[in-house]
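Progress report, Aim 2. The chain analyzed during this reporting quarter is listed below.
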Amino acid sequence: MFPRKLTRAVEQSLKPSSVNTKFEFEISDTGYGKDHVKILHVRRDGNVHHIKEFEVNTHLKLYSKKDYLNGDNSDIIATDSQKNTVYLLAKKFGVKSPEDFALTLTRHFLSKYRHVKEAHVHIEEHPWDRIRYTNAENKPKEHNHGFLFTPVATRYCDVIHQRDVRPTIISGLKNLRVLKTTRSSFVDFVDDEFRSLPDMEDRLFSTNVSCCWEYLEINDVNFDQIWTTVKEIILKNFAGDPIEGVNSPSVQNTIYLSQRDILAAIRQIGVVNIEMPNIHYYPFDMSKFPKVIQGENKEVYHPVDKPNGNIFSQLARVDNLKSKL
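Predicted structure tokens for the chain:
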């Protein structure tokens, strides 16, 4: 509910004589664009087809602020025009990786419109994979034009391109949900009067990984391969050997080992962020039902998503501590 009457102080502040229109205010940031532009691109190599489905956001910053200050729209590239640009450039140049397509868009906006100061494109990819069958020889066979939605993780990128400055490319993955049933512990943390959680020598470990990284180089980079490599490194440090697994003394350590291995394996990356919230699974208390269940319960768990711990880290090469992450 808004107050029915302004206070005397507010009334005085709104009088025209009290507002210094020349020096009192300054527009410190602006920008506009089109969000959630959905596009499916099909590339046909004979009978074998390839698809990419993206959701694209385009945002532009102009040198002038006359549209805000004076209502002069003569520099505005309409958001509908930005939407159409996504489809037209996909037709003209094709679609490879999210990063490559985002670069195509930002370069177009800066080269065609000299009054654009900065172009920022955010792309999320919808994950499709080929349908696979097992033939009579028990060998997998890929379908030429049939695809299966495989939402293991969401891939995304941001390309921020200012005029006369090398574009910044930030890639990432999110919604990578993982769980392991052993080889995870959490012990020897601060033991004071506020603590109620006991040491856990062996526990379920589940999280929903978010990871993003900034590129040092942008030329001749295989963005698809690097994204897959980052995901595989995270999964390896979380789960370990398929038979023996790997010990996880803390979420913090698992994050660091993943970041270290990413920077060691991929020279084009300068800095990497990883966030891992705890997704808790607590053993159901069977002690209240002694007539039904005897002995320890190690099979039945109660998922609890809130509240949850959340652990974050950024690891950078020492000569690349300035980043936009």
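The chain has six helices and twelve strands. The two ends are 39 Å apart (CA to CA). These observations will guide the mutagenesis work planned for the next reporting period.
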